[in-house]
Design goal:
377 residues; alpha/beta; 2 domains; 6-stranded mixed β-sheet; 12 strands; 45% helix; globular; lyase activity; NAD(P)-bd_dom_sf; lyase
C-alpha cells in the first residue's frame, strides 16, 4: 500500500481522514502536508459536519520519521506568521500551524480513532483532536527523549493538560508508554471501543460534539488537570533534580521540563513557541546525532547479510567457557548455571579460582547446587 492520506465522507456527514504509510504509519513531511490539505478540504466542504482522524492497517501512527533527524531541513514542513510581538513574527512554527491552527482550532469537531499504537508525533496529533476513542490494548506514549529530542508537535503542552503534570513528566522523561485502558482512567482517552466498532463509535462521538451533546474540548485550553501552579513547579523542580542526577549529559530532559514550565506559567501558546524553538536546537545537537545513530545501529543488528536473510538459526548453547572469576565473571557464571548451561571457569591459579567459586556460591546461597555444574580448569 502506497503512502497516502485519504478522506471518505459518509452519508452521516463525517469525513474520515486516514493515514497510510505502512507498516507503522510513520509521519513525515509529505504526510503532514497531505493532512493539512485534507483538513482544509473537510473544513470547506458543506457536506462535512465532523471529522475522524485514523490510521490504516490497525495502527494509528508510530510517530515522526526518525530519518528526518539526520536531515533537519525536512522538518520545516510548514510556515506561519505568528504575528504577536517583535521577535516571534514570521517564524517557522510547525507545531502551532499543524496541531493548533489545523486540528485543534478546526471549525468542525475532530475525533481521533486510535488503534494499535499512537507514539510520539502520532499521539501528539491525537491530542490535538477534540476527543480520542481507542481500541483495547492500544499503546500510547511520547518516547522522543530516548532520541535526544523533545515532543515537537505540541506534546509538552497537551499531555500535562490531559493527564496532569506528574503523569506527563513520568511519561515523557522516562519514555514510559501506557495502554489505552490506563489512558481512559487518566482522561487521555474518552472512550474504549473494539477494533471492529472503533471508527463507527468515533463517527458518532464526532457528530455528538457537532450537535452539542458532547463537549467540544481543546486540549491546549484546559487547566483542570494542572492543579495549583506551586504544586506543578515543585514537581518540575523535583524532576529537574532527578534528571541532573540520572542523566547529567542529556540536555533534552531539562529542555523538555523548560517547555512544560513555560506553558504552565504563560499559557499553552507560549509553551508551543518554547517547544518549537528548543526542538530546533536539539535536533542538531551531538546528543541527538549520537542517540539516533545508536537507534539505527541497534536495529541493524537484526539484519546481518548472509545471516538473518537466509534463515539461519542459532544452535542451542550447552557449555560456556569463562576466563576470569571476578565479580563480572562469577556473575555471568551464575546466570548461565541457573539456565542449566555447563560452565568452564578458568583462572590464573587455584586460589583465584576458589575465590570465584565462593563468590558464585555466596551470592546466591546455593553452595550445593553450584559445584556439580562448575568445571575447574
Amino acid at each position: 500500500m502506497a503512502m497516502a492520506v485519504t478522506m471518505e465522507v459518509g452519508n452521516d456527514g463525517v469525513g474520515v481522514i486516514s493515514i497510510s504509510n505502512p507498516p507503522l504509519n510513520i509521519i513525515n513531511a509529505a504526510i503532514l502536508a497531505a493532512l493539512k490539505e485534507k483538513f482544509g478540504e473537510a473544513t470547506r466542504r458543506r457536506d462535512v459536519k465532523a471529522i475522524v482522524l485514523t490510521g490504516k492497517g490497525g495502527r494509528f501512527s508510530g510517530g515522526f520519521d526518525i530519518n528526518a533527524f539526520q536531515n533537519p531541513s525536512v522538518l520545516k514542513y510548514a510556515s506561519i506568521n505568528v504575528g504577536t510581538t517583535g521577535d516571534t513574527s514570521d517564524r517557522t512554527i510547525e507545531s502551532i500551524d499543524l496541531v493548533l491552527n489545523t486540528i485543534e482550532d478546526c471549525k468542525k469537531p475532530v475525533v481521533a480513532a486510535i488503534e494499535g499504537l499512537a507514539l510520539g508525533g502520532g499521539l501528539e496529533l491525537a491530542m490535538g483532536c477534540h476527543a480520542r476513542i481507542a481500541a483495547p490494548k492500544t499503546q500510547l506514549g511520547l518516547p522522543e527523549l530516548t532520541l535526544g529530542v523533545i515532543p515537537g508537535l505540541g506534546g509538552t503542552q497537551s499531555l500535562p493538560r490531559l493527564v496532569g503534570v506528574s503523569k506527563a513528566i513520568e511519561m515523557m522523561l522516562f519514555s514510559k508508554p501506557i495502554m489505552s485502558e490506563e489512558g481512559k482512567l487518566l482522561g487521555l482517552i474518552d472512550e474504549i471501543a473494539t477494533s471492529e466498532e472503533l471508527v463507527r463509535v468515533s463517527r458518532l462521538h464526532a457528530l455528538e460534539i457537532s450537535d452539542g451533546r458532547k463537549p467540544w474540548v481543546r486540549s491546549l485550553h484546559r487547566t483542570d488537570k494542572i492543579g495549583s501552579l506551586s504544586e506543578a513547579q515543585q514537581l518540575l523542580r523535583t524532576a529537574r533534580e532527578q534528571a541532573k542526577r540520572t542523566a547529567p549529559n542529556m540536555p533534552q530532559h531539562l529542555a523538555c521540563l523548560d517547555a512544560v514550565e513555560e506553558g504552565l506559567l504563560h499559557g499553552g501558546y507560549k509553551g508551543l513557541l518554547k517547544e518549537a524553538a528548543v526542538s530546533k536546537e536539539l535536533v542538531q545537537s551531538n546528543t541527538t546525532k549520537a542517540l539516533t545513530h545508536l537507534f539505527f545501529a541497534q536495529r541493524a543488528t537484526a539484519k546481518v547479510p548472509n545471516i538473518t536473510d537466509v534463515g539461519l538459526k542459532p544452535n542451542h548453547v550447552k557449555k560456556v567457557g569463562i576466563i576470569g572469576g571476578g565479580i563480572m565473571g562469577s556473575g555471568i557464571a551464575t546466570s548461565l548455571m541457573l539456565s542449566n548451561i555447563t560452565v568452564f571457569l578458568k583462572e590464573i591459579n587455584s586460589e583465584y579460582l576458589l575465590k570465584g567459586m565462593k563468590t558464585v556460591e555466596g551470592g546466591y546461597y546455593i553452595d550445593t547446587l553450584c559445584a556439580p555444574f562448575v568445571n575447574i580448569v
